[in-house]
Amino acid sequence: MAHDPSKEGLLNAHSANDGYRRSFDNAAHDSGSDLDATDYLERDAAPNKRTPDAREKWSVRRPFAGRTRRWAQALYIGVALFVVILAATAFGYKKYQQEPPYGQSPPWYPTPRGGTAGTWAKSYEKAAKMVSKMTLAEKVNVTTGTGWQMGLAVGTNAPAVHVGFPQLQLQDGPLGIRFADNITAFPAGITVGATWNRQLMYARGKAHAIEARQKGVNVLLGPCVGPLGRMPAGGRNWEGFGADPYLQGIAGAETVKGIQSEGIMATIKHFVANEQEHFRQPWEWGLPHAVSSNIDDRTLHELYAWPFGDAVKAGVASVMCSYNQLNNSYACGNSKLLNGILKDELGFQGFVMSDWLAQRSGVGTALAGLDMTMPGDGLRWANGESLWGPQLTRSILNGSVPLERLNDMVTRIVAAWYQLGQDDEKKFPRQPPNFSSWTNERLGLPSEGSPSPQEKVEVNKFVDVRANHSVIAREVAAEGTVLLKNEDLLPLSRKGLPDAKLKMRRDNIRRATGQVRSGKFRVGIFGDDAGEGKGPNHCKDRACNQGTLGSGWGSGAVEFPYLMTPIQALREEFDLTKVELHDFLTDKPPHGTAADAGLADLELCIVFANADSGEGFAQWDNNQGDRADLKLQKGGDSLIESVASRCGSGVSDVVVVIHAVGPVLMEKWIDLPNVKAVLLAHLPGQESGHALTDILFGDINPSGHLPFTIGQSLEDYGPGAKIMYLPNAVVPQQDFKEGLYIDYRHFDKNDIEPRFPFGFGLSYTTFNISRIHVSPKKTKSPLPAPRPSPVASPPSYPTTIPPASEALFPAGFRALKKYIYPYLDSVDDMVSDPYPYPEGYHTTQPLSGAGGDEGGNPDLWAVYVTVAVEVANTGPVAGAVVPQLYLSYPEQEGEGGVDFPVRVLRGFDKVYLKPGEKQTVEFEVTRRDLSYWDVGRQNWVMVVEGEYRFGVGESSRHVAVEGRW
Ligand code: BGC
């Protein structure tokens, strides 16, 4: 029920200087803009020293760098003037204007309370008992971070001491334990996506969580399924699993299950549409507001929110809302997104946590469904002034945030803790982490971010938690390597080439150069990306591209415990009694003749090149988080071309190995006749070199497949695929006008030939897919079964506002400066005007027909049809095939027909087969898989007229067999 503050007798008052109250759901009301650049710069002057990595992260990036800066500043001033002049005249015409199709976020209140799903019922019962005993201050503690660097992890809330609820330790990130020693640097999400291997997705999550638990972490800030990959140059695409919602959904859910099988709470992030780094958050780019991703309802459901649905269904404990605005309302204060879609429709039972400083209003975000604010500081970095903390306390006392809402926030967090079994003190001793994010020394301050005097304590215990996780890291890296081209060259022999091939090559060289070669096989290794460079941890947060590329940069990166470089592994693996290795570990293309360059005698050249990107707080070269383009970096194209033309005087074979955060353009060299083999190894993590030699020498048969399309140009991906590098308004507006048509959906719709299609990947063997069999399990019907009634009832608590005494600083309390406490100095300044709730706050919303349980209406997850195919290994060696199921919706003719992509991924599997072996693979297709989001009916709708087509093949452009239903 909506809370009506005017009916509250007690302390129904406002604080006179309560600035955060002005902010509601809508960005237009948001108080983010009352910061100016000077305010923001102050955080750089904060006296926190020893943490260059961490602090750099939050230091002001040069507001607008390079060309962006000049243009954006001019634009900013220009647009501001323009807006002021036009505002008055525009106002009068407003009512005649048509509503734009994008950029509107309707209100959805109040927040659905957690505790309705059977799967969480026991945890909610336990939580209710605990929460009912908490004081107001304790409840606020649980919801609010204690401030940046106030604990040892990147995020910590505060405990509810008297009832035994501990402080939670939250740590990045999706590929390992950030800022920690003796951990595993796993391959990044994009590499995991490229494995198309569910078991490995799960295993990596599980190993990651074992390390988290042993390091004293409660909540992992991963996996990442947003960005989805709308823009191939998007800076953080590599943290996720690929440019398709189905693949992201499965990989995200398997990772969540793996993580949570160890009792660690997983956080699925970033909800939603943080598709580019430019303008992702206020002030980081000099603008007062974040970009608004403007997305229509259907696209939001079918693409961007889809993988989050899988994670909720998998029982994820936490969802992190993103920095950007969605339809002009900050994601962490967007009631339609959090209350409507996430909590009502998807039935999310855990808690919503803000990205770090993504909370832009106090009461507004509470009402919109945020449950935990991180790191606790509010509009400005590390100043100790929270939008919640004492302000949340005050807003409960004065009635502006309904007590019921606070109770729900806390219950969701405590229930998640019980749900994951973290009340087991043996598994989760109530201790701080045994490492510090802020120093590598043994001794450090417990609250590094506070200038108050503190005693140093032991903060780093250097516990080695790696066990044998390098094995999983290596397997993922190898299986995530995609063989894109292979003209009878790979696998190599450790002796160089098998004898017959070697003879042929030498004959070629003799014919071309007149030189007769004998003796050892001569291999040249080219490129800085093959080597160690200045070491894997040379740059803060990995924000530079030097040495071999093992991960992207930002909060999603870790300190490498080691990085097995390609050159090291090649040196170990080649038989050096037969092979001579020549290193050219530079990106400088060889000049002059082949002989001048020392390349004339080479019989094989392996060239390494790469492309890097990362989080928007850091910049490398001209890549400001997002890549500046899709080219290979550091002159990779020229290096490859130059080596190819000189290797063995242009007749020896060339293998190209790419490490990259996403698609790169290959047009300059992919068709060169002696570029015989190309491997895309994505971001392989610490086991890079080993995984590569596993593939090169055929110990592992490549089975990676592309988790995105490789186009022939950026233009091929469509206009929506371009990063907005220059703001188009003070609040940059990014209209996702292409709707459903991103990546392969765009290529298919527009009949554009990709260089390599989504899902593509070669093997050293061949497969055959045949005998499709479609078995209906249920009858088609347009709508899912009616929404079921909740299995359980959310806990209810007394609604009397607690006494103000619960909110005051306890006598004699020694407060650390800048540390966020829940307490107030006084309650004398409460005022009693009625609280101006957001528009739509008192309108009761109809419950979604798509909802009803964790993950939504259970009927959406019911299997309606299965599709079976036979897969066979028809080649000479064992290997794993990845059959992929693509669904095409029944065609809808005429006006009013629904527009559908040519095909969408709706199933995949990975099957290991010996030569000659066959196996049947069955795909289960659910109602959700078969439905589209009907905006009018506000539900998932199955098409009952016409026939669904199911194509199964080895990529999105390869249909081996087709069945119908
Ligand atoms: C990132 C999150 C991360 C958080 C904490 C933010 O900048 O966007 O992904 O979890 O920092 O480090």
UniProtKB/TrEMBL annotation:
Q: Give the pathway annotation.
A: Glycan metabolism; cellulose degradation
Q: Which Gene3D superfamilies match?
A: Glycoside hydrolase family 3 C-terminal domain, Glycoside hydrolase, family 3, N-terminal domain, Immunoglobulins
Which residues lie within the region annotated Disordered?
Answer: 1-56, 427-455, 776-797
Q: Where is the composition biased (Basic and acidic residues)?
A: 19-32, 40-56
| Enzyme class at the top of the EC tree | hydrolase
Q: Which UniProt keywords apply?
A: Carbohydrate metabolism, Cell membrane, Glycoprotein, Glycosidase, Hydrolase, Membrane, Polysaccharide degradation, Signal-anchor, Transmembrane, Transmembrane helix
Which InterPro entries does UniProt cross-reference here? Cellulose_deg_GH3, Fn3-like, GH, Glyco_hydro_3_AS, Glyco_hydro_3_C, Glyco_hydro_3_C_sf, Glyco_hydro_3_N, Glyco_hydro_3_N_sf
Q: Name one Pfam family in it.
A: Fn3-like
What's the protein's topology in the membrane? Single-pass type II membrane protein
Role according to the record: Beta-glucosidases are one of a number of cellulolytic enzymes involved in the degradation of cellulosic biomass. Catalyzes the last step releasing glucose from the inhibitory cellobiose.
* Family assignment from sequence similarity: Belongs to the glycosyl hydrolase 3 family.
Q: What is this protein called?
A: beta-glucosidase
Q: What is the lineage of its organism?
A: Eukaryota, Fungi, Dikarya, Ascomycota, Pezizomycotina
